[in-house]
């Protein structure tokens, strides 16, 4: 069916509802209308999915066909509730408002209706309105409705901006045309008399609240297409402002010198707005069709599906979903730009130019800047951004230094002429201004402005590759460019002392740095190579060697930046994935760092990078580990630790332990000292040794087969769980399974077998919010579950399956299982690193597989990145040796790959051939 046949379709529908002018029974009408609505939806969906039309066209088709249905229902209702003889057929106007008033509907949109009367509705009018509404509800439509007079509309609209906005979109459907004409005249008079100022202020407040709820950034990786910043609602807000101010129906009416406002939009901008409208509507239609509901959030599970439906395929290193999301983020950035350009222009044109006064001091004049309405502009008449692109950086710096606003017209010019930034590459003044902005007060704010305006991608061409680039995982909250700007903002917080409580060492070291410029440029470039394929650290280090000279940095600074980019993950990976009690771990990182200054730079950059990932990534436990790594490596660089000192350190640890046991007899102290192997004494401080000694003495005195002690460490954000019992194969697996059932997440573990055959295992756990596991009743249950697990009374597999699973939206994020063996990271242990999808009981399954292969686990280091678990184990065989024979490693790899595969995956506990191949190649 085409649009040309639509009027005939309406006539046919009315003929079927009113054959020979006589209404059919309500049940028959309801069945007929349901078929009609189903046909309308199917027709529009077919046209959309066959790409006969895009989103905006489909929304208009759906709106037009809904008009026909509504008019047929209006006529049918009028016949079913007839007027008194001689009375008017209808004494109200049926008016579409909201999105329906604009003539566009999504498949599962609400239908907003206004029953507009000229007088108090009579009994027949009330019955008719009620009949129509009940019919619509029985059809399964979501209807927003109101019955008001024209005066009521204005009165309520003045009280509630939502009502006022709906009236802006009001459109006559049928009924009393005179009533609607009276309303339209009254509303136009109200608009002109009240002016745009109150409406604009209300819409700005509404938008601010909406952004606070759905996301201040347009670059969130699971964006709300309708309500988020840069989404459909922001575009609609511009439309409402233009319509309220000038009465225009479409944005192209603002193009040209004769248009309202004198040409607020260029033809290019109007086309760009149209493209953004169409893209966002297309995305919204796909969301509704895929989910079967009014879903507006583009979650991880929907992104691959919709990318495929829209024809996005893999291109180079980017898959289809990443390409879709980049298109969306660039569109959102365009919407942000339109808002910056058009909204102040509408305001200025509607309110009329205020008393404009241009003045400036000699300093501003020398920069080519001036004031307009108390805000910064390029000095008229002959200074502008297109001829002097350096003014774009000068005006931003002047705004920062003088705490002034940039005039909306200047922001508009900055956006329109951002392309001219290409002429500034390598310019000494531009480099100086840019670096000053990046390292000065409020850097994130100004860098975000330059990024949204498009300046950054033109000034640093490599930046364009990461603009709007999404990483398809649940770890990163922002796109790469937004994460980078966040990291620069965190650096400033560290320097200012704002993070002294959560990152005290980094805050202290920030004031000691000699290479501040290199640190900031490294933060700018640390992820510059993402999305190119390969190791982004290595590629980024090479790019830094090209970019830094263009920014005017010296050879020494360039080398430092390149090194920092190359190693920006070194400290975090060591802290979270290696045994920092192993001297070789610390010596290896010291060999790479070599310089105390580089170590300071690396720690501060690591903290900034981690805190910029998202609000839940940083916690006290991670801060503790990073701090420990820093101090231990710093000690090595100062000449304070070498491998031969291991025996000396063990002796000192024993001396400190004895000193902390004043209540012990000499025999008791000597007995305790005889229990631990060297690794045990180097793993804990004297205070912990003293607690262990007391626990062991109590257990031996009472002959307790199992002792469980818990200790909350709020300053570290973890709870320490210590288990003392007879050692046996699979012990770690059973304890970790019990912890999973209790809802505790293990973040680190130390496993020690004592000389008396007992196991002294220590686990550090957190709750689901990455905080200490501290509720008393939960701690008590945790101890009980450990006892039940070790005694065999707890069916671990069954209980683990009952633990809450992850949200379905995360299921689309794939994490191929991967197993890596490293016999070089430790002198005494084989290091096993396993990567897989996190789930309740994963650690239980993995450690069970290790134990079944006859291996002993000495320590475990557990890290999660969104849904990805990265677990590292230090292991030995039954003879206390490394596992270096490939014939022993091969079955171990197979067992671990089986353990990493979710049980619900087809094929039972095994992985597919493809997954095994990927994992083994990795």
UniProtKB/TrEMBL annotation:
Swiss-Prot/TrEMBL GO biological process terms: regulation of nitrogen utilization
Region (Uridylyltransferase) location: 1-359
Domain of life: Bacteria
Gene Ontology molecular function terms on file: [protein-PII] uridylyltransferase activity; phosphoric diester hydrolase activity
Co-factor(s): Mg(2+)
Domain called HD: residue spans: 480-596
Catalytic activity: [protein-PII]-uridylyl-L-tyrosine + H2O = [protein-PII]-L-tyrosine + UMP + H(+); [protein-PII]-L-tyrosine + UTP = [protein-PII]-uridylyl-L-tyrosine + diphosphate
Stretches assigned to the ACT domain: 720-803, 831-907
SUPFAM superfamilies documented for this protein: ACT-like, HD-domain/PDEase-like, Nucleotidyltransferase, Nucleotidyltransferase substrate binding subunit/domain
Activity regulation field: Uridylyltransferase (UTase) activity is inhibited by glutamine, while glutamine activates uridylyl-removing (UR) activity.
SMART domains xref list: HDc (SM00471)
Keywords from the UniProt entry: Hydrolase, Magnesium, Multifunctional enzyme, Nucleotidyltransferase, Repeat, Transferase
EC number(s) on file: 2.7.7.59, 3.1.4.-
Pfam family, any one: HD
Keyword Amino-acid biosynthesis assigned: no
Physiological role: Modifies, by uridylylation and deuridylylation, the PII regulatory proteins (GlnB and homologs), in response to the nitrogen status of the cell that GlnD senses through the glutamine level. Under low glutamine levels, catalyzes the conversion of the PII proteins and UTP to PII-UMP and PPi, while under higher glutamine levels, GlnD hydrolyzes PII-UMP to PII and UMP (deuridylylation). Thus, controls uridylylation state and activity of the PII proteins, and plays an important role in the regulation of nitrogen metabolism.
Classification via NCBIfam families: PRK05092.1, UTase_glnD
Domain notes: Has four distinct domains: an N-terminal nucleotidyltransferase (NT) domain responsible for UTase activity, a central HD domain that encodes UR activity, and two C-terminal ACT domains that seem to have a role in glutamine sensing.
Matching PANTHER family: BIFUNCTIONAL URIDYLYLTRANSFERASE/URIDYLYL-REMOVING ENZYME, BIFUNCTIONAL URIDYLYLTRANSFERASE_URIDYLYL-REMOVING ENZYME
Family according to the record: Belongs to the GlnD family.
Protein name: Bifunctional uridylyltransferase/uridylyl-removing enzyme
Organism: Roseococcus suduntuyensis
Name of the gene: glnD
